[in-house]
Amino acid sequence: MQVTKTSLADVLLLTPKVYGDERGHFFESFNQQSFNKLISGVNFVQDNQSRSAKGVLRGLHYQIQQAQGKLVRVLQGEIFDVAVDLRRSSAQFGQWTSATLSANNQQQMWIPPGFAHGFLVLSDTADVLYKTTDYYAPRFERAIRWDDSALGIVWPNVERVILSEKDQQSVAFANAEYYD
Ligand SMILES: Cc1cn([C@H]2C[C@H](O)[C@@H](COP(=O)(O)OP(=O)(O)O[C@H]3O[C@@H](C)C(=O)[C@@H](O)[C@H]3O)O2)c(=O)[nH]c1=O
User: Fold this and answer.
1) Which position among 19, 25, 117, 130 bears the catalytic label?
2) Pairwise CA distance, residues 30 & 48, whole Å
3) Coiled-coil regions in this chain (predicted)?
4) 10 with 93: CB under 8 angstroms?
């Protein structure tokens, strides 16, 4: 597994070693031992999978309690994946980073607890799978506006951005709840 740093110190891009042969390919999409050598003390408890059409933007989501670390990958298609540091104590508070994750590049983004997460679908459809370090807790769910100019996230151009009703009600970064 190759580990690449991103512009946020605690967000990592992981590229598994892919073994190709005449049958197709094989790779370990997750290995707890290798992962814990990289990031100790992390235990994943839930796997989430979503399918979305081109232009769907899910985010920017986080849980203010039961904060979830997320290991994100794409089974089919391509997404622009984004993490925003919401830890007030962090030197990078309010900063964002991104990576294009796809079924072709097999890259995974590790986003620790304390960050908001969102993605935009660039392919006709995308199946996204992510492991989380804590359970879903709807009462602690929060969402920040994806296009808040205070964050200044540079999203790729798509014809039309499609948001859930919930994400249409999301709040500005300035009015959001943060982590300590
Ligand atoms: C997130 C989640 C949703 N649900 C349900 C609630 C709802 O009826 C339906 C769809 O939920 P949402 O609209 O919140 O799904 P979605 O907008 O895909 O939410 C997800 O977005 C990405 C970016 C994340 O990082 C995730 O943590 C999560 O917030 O699924 C669960 O049962 N368990 C879960 O863990």
Assistant:
1) 130
2) 14
3) none
4) no
Rg of the chain over all Cα atoms, to the nearest angstrom: 16
Could you tell me if 10 and 67 are in contact, meaning their C-beta atoms sit under 8 angstroms apart? no
SS3 of residue 165 by DSSP:
helix
Phi, psi at 9, each rounded to 5°: -55, -35
Record the tokens describing residue 175, joined without a space.
């009015």
Query: pLDDT tens digit string along 117-171?
Result: 999 999 999 999 999 999 999 999 999 999 999 999 999 999 999 999 999 999 9
User: ipTM > 0.95?
Assistant: yes
**Which residues, at least 6 apart from 128, have a Cβ–Cβ distance to it below 8 Å?**
49, 50, 51, 52, 72, 73, 74, 75, 79, 119
Predicted TM-score (pTM) of the model is 0.98
Return the residue whose CA atom lies nearest to atom 34 of ligand 1.
136
CA distance 158 to 140: 31
Taking CA atoms, 149 is separated from 55, 146, 160, in Å, by: 20, 9, 18
